Amino acid sequence: MKVKSTLKYPNKSHRKIVILPDYSPKLAEFFGIMIGDGGINNPWQVTITLNSIKDKEYSNFIKSLCFELFGIYPAIRKRPGKNTLVISLASISVVEFLIEKDLPRGNKLKNGLKIPDWILFKKSYQIACVRGLVDTDGCLFIHQHIVKGKAYKNLGLCFTNHSPGIIKSVAAILKELGISGHISKRGSNVYLYRESDIVKYLKIVGTSNDRISSLYNEWRDARVV
User: Fold this and answer.
1) Strands 150-160 and 189-192, sheet pairing
2) Which helix (H) or strand (E) holds 77?
3) Quick one: which of 224, 220, 174, 165 has its CA closest to 197?
4) What is the pLDDT of residues 155-170, one digit of tens each?
5) Mapping DSSP to helix (H, G, I), strand (E, B) and coil, where does residue 206 land?
6) Average pLDDT value for the chain
7) Which domains are assigned to the chain?
8) CA torsion 156→162→168→174, rounded to 10°?
9) Cβ–Cβ < 8 Å for 167, 188
10) Closest among 106, 158, 119 to 137, alpha carbons compared
11) Which residues contact 3 (CB under 8 A, 6 or more apart)?
12) In the sheet where 189-192 sits, what is the strand order?
């Protein structure tokens, strides 16, 4: 059940009326997005930074997700001269809510970035959170290699994060789902190399980002004879 926020300062006009959602897969996916490309750098605003070209469609998904969760639409603007989109959700109540649910404020790495316990306690939340993480800080790619003079194209998936705890948590969640994720030597990447693991990932975890789904569909269709 969703409830309206309780304001600490009811006579102040700087507080928007928002909805504070219960725990759900959608909220867990939003947390994955925030852990990946989001940030809280002041008391009144949440921001998410994306590529303005590759993630243009995905920004619309995030806009709709924000409204579904909190009852307000974020602003989306492109940084002048850069291929960067900034999604800004302005609400003191939402900021306080996210911090209360264990999303760190300020420098995420220095302030103990991790997947919150409430997400780790339920599989559907884990799956949704990983989807948000990979949709922001991950990519699907096609790599080529040559064996005995013959060129082969293979599909790969890479998730990158500079928090060792996040990397270990994502690898552990994938393992529980029967997906073999390999942590890089530097410890900042989780790779999926086998076609079967990537297909299973997209079937179980899925993606909300057209950047990932369109490349997979292109690769899959190219293999159909």
Assistant:
1) antiparallel
2) strand 75-78
3) 174
4) 899 999 999 999 999 9
5) coil
6) 90
7) 3-109 (3.10.28.10), 134-223 (3.10.28.10)
8) -30
9) yes
10) 158
11) 19, 20
12) 138-147, 150-160, 189-192, 182-183
